[in-house]
Write a structure and sequence with these properties.
heterodimer, A: about 550 residues, mainly alpha, Cytochrome C Oxidase, Chain A, 15 helices, globular, disordered C terminus, B: about 210 residues, Four Helix Bundle (Hemerythrin (Met), subunit A), 6 helices
Chain lengths: ~550, ~210
């Protein structure tokens, strides 16, 4: 640390004190402020979706399920799924940290289309409020997948309002992806070649390609669903020869790549956390960068593995099985490269790296169980059981949410200019790892023993594992509230962080914390590769 | 030539800004292609599942209105292309005139489309309203409903396109956008219009021509 007292963030001119009115926030085109707007919005949505999860876990404490009616249980897990997927996980890392960091990392003043960026926030919040209203006014009982003909002919509830809300939010995704793609192509600072981009930017680029190519297909699918339910058009109606399975094909054509929309940004975060934590150049830069693109590309061709038991042709099943196994290759490349990066590194177990390592461990477990599910024979056995639920929670919560929190712990000093208490950061990382495994590992066992998902009751012999899972969920709850508390505390009481508290490489650490309104005093010229460790400047230098 | 160009916030150079505008537009059009692509894919699948019924349904479409509209739309794209050319040469009035011509053809297209929907209603092809024709009862009904979704969505894009062209023409005519320095507004509107046109070029054979 330097001997001189650092200027406090309030004293220095930064994007945070560039204006204090509501107008200066709600009409801002500064990517950093829009990122904060997103952070607030998705934290709210996360809390709403967590209520759904809490209801599910409380209901499943007892075999007979005393809390909710069967209908109410359906509505609770639909609320949880819809809000978590579309209003937390998909926008989580890209729209907050991606928004904040991509221009900083590539040496730009802002995203390519700043006003479009603000518009995408309003669209997102508009879609979210629409959906929330519908879910609270009575809810939907179809599950987040809206399978026909249940959703078009039989379901009661506010299906139309919810799918309208999701479609609207989809446009926000599209605009964000478009903005990122153009920004990365056109606004890199002089010398910031493609081969010098931080891996965070590469993974967001791959994510953006999926966002712009997959989301419109979801929009069309939901428009057709809307037409069939609201206007009684016959699109998927089996009574006159329509095919409800086509809905599933279209839906998963979006929704499987959507899983990669959730995990790829988290992978980008982990690449940053691991290199900074080990103070070492990343092992196999091009392998990690190209693995992101490979996951995005092959990820478009695996949707049929959601439909192995739907009666699709066995040839299609075999091909989808093979391609799903193939996606594991670039994913494994990343895991090996992160591990190799840590090898012989100067590892300091700060909270960001702990979250990064939690990601690697949980993602590996989730990924390996994904390989099992990609095999036709095993999927026949565990399809629609808690094994699947455990698998995708290991990827989405263990992976994506750990990545999100890791990013929060890594870049919080950059965003706010304040440090949070590191001890509490380590405690919360440990609690999350513990609580997560306690919640979801029992679900692998339950699923393998045959407990189906989406049932409000179960045979008494499953109770012990379900109680364990619910107990884990309460640990997880505490672990999620903790960062909220100490992050808020640090806003006033944390010590000033300095430009580069972790001693990390990357252009975002060369600007003061919090960054000035236009990011850089002058546009930097880049003359060295990414992760150019060891850094010549000492840790904590301004 | 570059004196009228106003650089927007993150950009340092004129070329960089216009490259970004074009790339943004192309990416946006790619999303639109995926949107209509999903619908066309579905239509193709139903056609392979129910070939006779689909052909039967196509025989009930107003081929001549569809054909006339194809010609009208292609001509409107010619007007837009000439407008873009005029904008690049800084000809304010010609640009606005060409865009207005394209818009007039767009309105003719929508009018014909409305007449066609009227005829469809008369023939009992419309879902929900009217006396349903027996054609709608079988798998042909799937094809007919997809025709309505596709053409209605296309018409919606046409209306957006009219607003876009109208805005560009007004801005150019009033001098709010100077030519040729700010011709990019005409180029972008033109790309969108051409795209909507290309979508129709696919919809026409899919729904009208494949009737055998």
């Amino acid at each position: 640390m330097t001997a001189l007292p650092l200027q406090t963030p309030e004293e220095r001119v930064s994007y945070l004190n560039a204006g204090h009115t509501l107008r200066s926030w709600f009409l801002t085109t500064d990517h950093k402020r829009i990122a904060i707007l997103y952070l607030v919005a998705i934290t709210g949505f996360f809390a709403v979706a967590a209520v759904g999860a809490a209801l599910i876990r409380l209901q499943l404490m007892t075999p007979t399920g005393e809390l909710l009616s069967h209908e109410g249980y359906n509505r609770a897990f639909t609320l949880h799924g819809v809000v978590m997927v579309w209003f937390f996980l998909i926008p989580s890392i890209p729209n907050t940290f991606g928004n904040f960091l991509i221009p900083l990392m590539i040496g730009a003043k802002d995203l390519a289309f700043p006003r479009l960026n603000l518009a995408s926030w309003y669209i997102f919040v508009g879609g979210g409020i629409f959906t929330l209203y519908a879910l609270i006014a009575g809810g939907v009982d179809t599950g987040w997948t809206f399978y026909t003909p249940l959703s078009t002919m039989y379901a009661n509830g506010h299906v139309l309002a919810v799918i309208a809300g999701i479609t609207i939010a989809g446009f926000s995704s599209i605009l964000t992806g478009l903005n990122f793609i153009v920004t990365v192509h056109k606004l890199r600072a002089p010398g910031m070649t493609w081969g010098r981009l931080p891996l965070f930017v590469w993974s967001h680029y791959a994510t953006s390609v999926i966002l712009v190519l997959a989301t419109p297909v979801l929009a069309m699918t939901l428009i057709l669903l809307f037409a069939e339910r609201a206007l009684r058009l016959a699109i998927f109606d089996p009574s006159i020869g329509g095919d409800p399975l086509l809905f599933q094909h279209l839906f998963w054509f979006y929704s499987h790549p959507a899983v990669y929309i959730m995990i790829l940004p988290a992978m980008g975060v982990v690449s940053e956390l691991v290199t900074a934590g080990a103070r070492k150049r990343v092992f196999g830069y091009w392998f990690v960068a190209c693995a992101s693109l490979a996951i995005a590309g092959v990820g478009f061709l695996v949707w049929g593995h959601h439909m192995f038991v739907s009666g699709q042709s066995p040839y299609a099943g075999a091909i989808f099985s093979f391609l799903s196994l193939a996606v594991a290759v670039p994913s494994a490349v990343k895991v090996y490269n992160w591990t190799a990066t840590l090898y012989k590194g100067e590892v300091v177990l700060d909270p960001p790296l702990l979250y990064g390592m939690a990601f690697v461990g949980l993602f590996t477990i989730g990924g390996l169980s994904g390989l099992m599910l990609a095999l036709l024979a095993i999927d026949e056995h565990v399809h629609d059981t808690y094994f699947v639920v455990a698998h995708f929670h290991y990827i989405m919560v263990g992976g994506a949410v750990s990545g999100f929190l890791g990013a929060a712990h890594f870049w919080w000093p950059k965003i706010t200019g304040r440090m949070y208490p590191l001890v509490w950061g380590r405690i919360s990382a440990g609690l999350i790892f513990l609580g997560f495994n306690l919640t979801f590992f029992p679900q692998y066992l339950l699923g393998y023993l045959g407990m189906p998902r989406r049932y409000p009751t179960y045979p008494p012999e499953f109770q012990a594992l379900n109680v364990l899972s619910s107990a884990g969920a309460s640990v997880l709850f505490v672990a999620y509230v903790l960062p909220l508390v100490y992050f808020t505390w640090s806003l006033r009481n944390g010590r000033a962080a300095g430009a580069n508290p972790w001693g990390a490489s990357g252009l975002e650490w060369t600007t003061p914390s919090p960054p000035p309104k236009h990011n850089f005093e002058q546009i930097p010229v880049v003359d060295r590769p990414a992760y150019d460790y060891p850094l010549t400047r000492a840790r904590g230098d301004e | 030539m570059s004196e009228y160009v106003t650089l927007r916030e993150p950009y340092a150079a004129r070329r960089q800004q216009s490259d970004a505008d074009f790339l943004g537009m192309y990416v946006f059009l790619a999303t639109e292609a995926m949107l209509f692509g999903a619908l066309m894919c579905l239509t193709f699948l139903y056609r392979t599942q129910h070939p006779q019924a689909s052909a039967l349904a196509a025989q009930h479409m107003q081929l001549w209105i569809g054909a006339a509209n194809t010609g009208i739309l292609l001509t409107s794209s010619l007007f837009v292309a000439l407008g873009v050319l005029a904008a690049r040469h800084g000809q304010r009035r010609t640009t606005a005139g060409m865009l207005a011509g394209a818009m007039a053809l767009g309105v003719v297209f929508l009018t014909l489309k409305g007449i066609e929907y009227g005829l469809d209603y008369r023939d009992g092809l419309m879902p929900v309203i009217g006396h349903p024709s027996p054609v709608r009862q079988g798998p042909a009904g799937l094809f007919i409903d997809l025709y309505f979704v596709a053409t209605a969505l296309h018409a919606l894009h046409m209306i957006v396109g009219l607003v876009v062209l109208g805005t560009a023409a007004t801005l150019v005519l009033r001098g709010a956008k100077r030519l040729p320095g700010q011709a990019v507004v005409v180029e972008m509107s033109g790309l969108y219009w051409h795209f909507v046109d290309v979508v129709w070029v696919f919809l026409f054979p899919i729904f009208y021509l494949a009737r055998g």
